[in-house]
């Protein structure tokens, strides 16, 4: 099997990831489940597959012992994000397949209120979730919506560049880590001198990046970023607790002042096996939410989100209940996804064996 044949298979089977490991079988991830394929290329064939996506300079770096992150287009149709790494004295490659085009909000199931967030003039919007939860695609949809509807200058700082945005109403400059800049934080600092309206930071990885992002928001920019957290409350705690103890009070105040919204999401398997569906938690930076952050009452945020339904907010459990009642997911999927099982059991009514029987 050639690299092109492997990609064709992965695309045809609607796979999200492909794994090539020198010396063993190929593998793919489909609808969140890993499948080991029967196909076992020779070591030379596996190496040739991996080298297909690398430049001569990147091959030299890999052979010198480096790991490589890259994003590129294959066949002018599909864009991939890949990581080439060493294991057991051999090479391996993990490839994430991205959609050929940036999907619309409606296709992804992103709540309409996120469009309102995207038109804010300043502040911070975070898209959060575990690895493989679709954060990249959701953020791409947000940037694409801005591109089509707002005459604004957008600077992206990515590792690596994944989706490509042609100029539409907006002007978009995309910078790649280790190619165009040394770090997220340094690119954030320099971007403030580049006349941006919006800055997209691929990931909030460390305190330096968080502090620079908050500074950018405070100086009148809209900052978009992602984090590997599973709820709005956990996101807030991660930002504040991850700051040095002598800076936590000021970071808490700055973040509370500038937060526009948090979209926490997961991709869940549809119970008939036909794909995956988006489950979200939406927190908007209302005065009530800001006050809870300032008063260190993050544990009360789920209640505030429930109280803000009319504004477009909802908790993860509320969305899981919706997906369960509408027949998209089964009970076990909902229970595996929630961060508050007791609340979910009570809400769904599992103490009543006749509750929603057609959805078990």
Strands, helices and their partners?
Blueprint: H1 3-12, E1 15-21, E2 27-30, E3 33-36, H2 43-52, H3 56-63, E4 68-74, E5 78-87, E6 90-98, H4 105-108, H5 113-118, E7 123-128, H6 135-149, E8 153-158, E9 171-176, H7 184-191, E10 198-201, H8 207-218, E11 222-227, H9 232-241, H10 248-258, E12 259-269, E13 276-284, H11 287-294, H12 301-307, H13 316-325, H14 331-337, H15 341-348
Parallel strand pairs: 7-11, 7-12, 8-9, 8-10, 10-11
Antiparallel strand pairs: 1-2, 1-6, 2-3, 4-5, 5-6, 12-13
Task: Provide key terms for this protein.
13 strands, 2 domains, Beta-Lactamase, 7-stranded mixed beta sheet, 360 residues, alpha/beta, 6-stranded antiparallel beta sheet, single chain, 15 helices, globular, 37% helix, Rossmann fold
What's the shape?
Answer: globular
Structural class: alpha/beta
Q: What is the domain total for the residues? A: 2
Q: Return the string of H and E elements.
A: HEEEHHEEEHHEHEEHEHEHHEEHHHHH
Helix segment tally:
15
CATH level-four homologous superfamily name of the largest domain: P-loop containing nucleotide triphosphate hydrolases
Radius of gyration using CA atoms only: 22 Å
The biggest beta sheet, please?
Answer: 7 strands, mixed
Span between termini: 41 Å
How much of the polypeptide forms β-strand, as a percent range? 15-25%
Uncertain residue segments: 356-360
- CATH C-level class of the largest domain is Alpha Beta
At the fold tier of CATH, the topology name of the largest domain is Rossmann fold
In spatial order, strands of the major sheet run 9-8-10-11-7-12-13
């Amino acid at each position: 099997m050639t690299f092109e044949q492997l990609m064709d298979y992965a695309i045809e089977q609607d796979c999200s990831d492909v794994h090539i490991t020198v010396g063993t079988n190929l593998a793919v991830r489909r609808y969140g489940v890993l499948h080991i394929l029967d196909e076992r290329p020779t070591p030379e064939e596996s190496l040739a597959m991996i080298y297909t996506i690398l430049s001569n300079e990147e091959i030299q770096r890999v052979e010198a012992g480096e790991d490589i992150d890259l994003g590129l287009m294959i066949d002018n149709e599909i864009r991939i994000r890949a990581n080439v790494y060493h294991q057991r004295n051999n090479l391996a490659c993990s490839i994430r397949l991205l959609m050929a085009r940036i999907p619309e909000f409606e296709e992804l199931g992103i709540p309409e209120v996120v469009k309102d967030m995207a038109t804010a003039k300043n502040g911070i919007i975070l898209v959060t979730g575990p690895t493989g939860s679709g954060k990249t695609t959701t953020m791409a949809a947000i940037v694409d919506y801005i591109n089509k509807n707002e005459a604004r200058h957008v600077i992206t700082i990515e590792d690596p560049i994944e989706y490509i945005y042609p100029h539409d109403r907006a002007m978009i400059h995309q910078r790649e880590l280790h190619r165009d800049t040394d770090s997220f934080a340094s690119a954030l600092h320099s971007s403030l001198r580049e006349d941006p309206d919006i800055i997209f930071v691929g990931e909030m990885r460390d305190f330096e990046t968080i502090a620079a992002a908050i500074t950018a928001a405070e100086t009148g920019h809209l900052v978009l970023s992602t984090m590997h957290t599973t709820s709005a409350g956990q996101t807030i705690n991660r930002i504040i607790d991850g700051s040095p103890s002598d800076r936590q009070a000021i970071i808490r105040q700055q973040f509370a002042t500038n937060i526009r919204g948090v979209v926490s999401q997961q991709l869940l398997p549809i119970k008939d096996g036909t794909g995956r569906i988006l489950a979200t938690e939406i927190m908007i930076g209302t005065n009530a939410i800001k006050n809870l952050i300032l008063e260190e009452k993050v544990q009360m945020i789920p209640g505030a989100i429930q109280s803000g339904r009319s504004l477009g907010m909802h908790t993860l459990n509320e969305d899981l209940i919706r997906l369960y009642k509408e027949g998209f997911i089964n009970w076990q999927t909902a229970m595996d996804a929630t961060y508050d099982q007791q609340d979910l059991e009570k809400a769904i009514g599992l103490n009543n064996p006749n509750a929603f029987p057609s959805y078990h």
